[in-house]
Amino acid sequence: MHEVELKRRSAGALSSVLPDTQAARFEAAAQQAGRRLEGRTVWNLSSTESGGGVAEMLHNLLGYFLDAGVRTRWLIVDAGEPFFALTKRLHNAIHGASGGPFTAADHAEFDEVTARNLAPMTELIRPGDIVMLHDPQTAGLVDGLLEAGARVAWRSHIGRDTPDPASAQAWDFLRGYIERADAFVFSRRQYAPGWLDRGRLWLIPPSIDPLSAKNRPLTPSESMTILAEAGLLVDGRMVVQVSRWDRLKDMPGVMGGFRLANPPGDVHLTLAGPAVDGVTDDPEGAEVYAECVRVRAGMPDGIRDRVHLASIAMDDIERNALIVNALQRRATIVVQKSLAEGFGLTVTEAMWKAKPLIASAVGGIQDQISSEHTGVLLSDPANPAEFAAALRRLLYNDLAQARLGRAGRARVLEHYLDDRQLIQTGDLLESLAAIPEVQPSAGAGASR
Ligand code: UDP
Fold first, then answer.
1. Is the CB–ligand 1 distance for residue 312 below 6 Å?
2. Which of 63, 96, 307, 425 has its CB 3.0 to 4.6 Å from that of 9, i.e. a possible disulfide?
3. How do beta strands 267-274 and 237-242 pair?
């Protein structure tokens, strides 16, 4: 278990990009959280500090909580390859892809890693502290932390709109671990398994920080310099997808659709993701990347040279973020052709940059994009012809590009910046803080 160094982020600076009433609401909520959580520490636990949406979001959001005067800390669970292979199977199964069945040996592995991580945690936390556990990797810690006197919320950043046998297997595996948490947080109502107590359910979609290296304004020449230094500048229009190298992001399908669209010769496709040794909780990455290299190699001359696989180093997170920012800003069209998606922060990021999106109608992407208004939704993400047709249509329509981009940005401003998430999370934390302490009664021992 190790701790992530958090940097304070100025709530006042965030306010400055918001309309006045939105800014006032945000500042009032931040001050209130500071007051009501005084004397407690809010712990966050997750499985990685870089690469992927959860890590991205926590750096920013927790920085604003620090600024609001909330004592906030972030720890990373300590685990090895077998554990991450298991949690990746759980992740895939929750999305409805295969992953199960989950066996007694899987439980044994899960329990062993959990016990190893619980011991140092119980040394650190004090009764009354609040712990936010993120995703399946941390699910095993719920009971131990409750016993240590903490208020515990478990948050799933993933889910599936309609349960299927694979997702049911994953939730069966997790149920006994998470069931007693004080609160559950999901990005969408549909994601919460049916057995979960609705009275403890909170719906908090993710959000982005408009001031982070990932999203802050860049001039066209700054973007060009950043991309030139990274060896990613191309001479022509760019179609871009940024994702982890994960099967559910369907990078090979984006290449297939691009080929089918047969776009004009000045149009390039850039698929960008973290260097495959960079995301430590994602063992599938190297395989998927290798598959993309193979698919690209099999493309005909004249298309292949315009398809670029960018593997971006993760050792310098700031640099990585600036490269992603520049790619998104330089893009003519941004794509997120995921087969499944918890929320889709890359979609939010591109909408904030006023880019026209072509994205699959899956998971949280459907909350962000209303088709033909704030982007274009693909009704069948697995159909390359639908993607190819949307791409061709949009490439030839500058007016539609601008219109979709403007509407997308407005939607993000209103719903998906960190002010909204800070307000909701503040409410959750305050309600956890208000749970009465359980006093150990003589002879009976403490129980919850
Ligand atoms: N990301 C990044 N560098 C990369 C690839 C992805 O910083 O090379 C970021 C991306 O900008 C986004 C996050 O990782 O902020 C991915 O979040 P999303 O919700 O789209 O998908 P997830 O990875 O959580 O499934």
1. yes
2. 63
3. parallel
